[in-house]
Amino acid sequence: MNIKITGTGSYIPSTVEKNENFHNHEFLNTDGSVIASPNEVIVEKFKSITGISERRYAKNHLNSSDLGFFAAEKAIEDANIDPETIDYIIVAHNFGDVKYGTIQGDFLPSLAARIKHSLRIKNPKCIAYDLLFGCPGWVEGVIQAQAFIKSGMAKRCLVIGTETLSRVVDKHDRDAMIFSDGAGATIVEATEEEGGILAHESASFTYDEAYFLFFGNSNNPELDKDTRYIKMDGRKIYEFALVNVPKAMKDCLDKSGVDIKDVKKIFIHQANEKMDEAILKRFYRLYKTDIPEHVMPMSIQKLGNSSVATVPTLFDLVKNNQLPPHELHKGDAVIFASVGAGMHINAVVYKH
User: Fold this and answer.
1) Can you provide one Gene Ontology molecular function annotated for this UniProt record (predicted)?
2) CATH topology assigned to domain 197-351
3) Residue pair 314/163 in contact by the 8 Å Cβ criterion
4) Do 245 and 311 form a contact (C-beta atoms < 8 A)?
5) What is the pLDDT of residues 98-146, one digit of tens each?
6) What is the DSSP string of 204-227?
7) Hey, CA dihedral for 47, 50, 55, 57, is it positive or negative?
């Protein structure tokens, strides 16, 4: 028995928010002072670091659970399964359903319960629960699904990553330009086909690193002190990721038995173009080998950072030949890897 991803789906919102749309924002420093540089300079410098030229925002009437539902429908159709046969629905997110124009995340009921309801699944033995693990949530959900299947507790799981980060950003913070909305979903199940999940690695660094990403006040001191927004220490995250993500990827690959030269694609969480490129260089340096051409597909330039949705969305796009020149073939060995709030890191080696 092998454990494979038999269906994928993603939902990419249709609203495009281009960089020039931020030219009229009032960007402030953390102390509330006005940033001296013109917005055009701020935005251009931002693009040179992150690689982001545009991102996607969900339409006002849609929430994270809606996006997750749309992606799940596609994954179920792609796998050609009866949704009543799903044993677990695992939904990774960070902030619940944040309705447009509000400041409160809604977790009651869980997003997994809402998505199961929207899918009209009657089977009460289909267990639906949420997973809070920062940006690595979808990858961790796949790891959990594998554990359920290996233990005999399940045969088939639906793993979703969904987020509407555009609704929890501080418009006075330059980091607001990083975040976006979206959802990705996968069916993970036991199969007699060759390949599947070969190895996994997870770690939580919380001693000094727990609050590199946090909920904090707006940079505008005149706004309500009781309203919180997503905040991060970008420099510390960058330095942390460069040291720890390549190591986790190497540990995972070494356990899998796959040779570094046989890795065809590396699907890294789309957090920052420069950071992902640096992680890739560090990873291949650990093996003292050159980086192959086209080994790391990227979507951040057009889709931004949608947290838990980036890896499954990227995988879905490449699998369906929607991100040329990247493509996947049966038997290809790939790596999924992510880092995020917590600070959590994980990786999976997978044979397609």
Assistant:
1) 3-oxoacyl-[acyl-carrier-protein] synthase activity
2) Peroxisomal Thiolase; Chain A, domain 1 (3.40.47)
3) no
4) no
5) 999 887 899 999 999 999 999 999 999 999 999 999 999 999 999 999 9
6) E--TTTTTSEEEE--S-TTS-TT-
7) negative
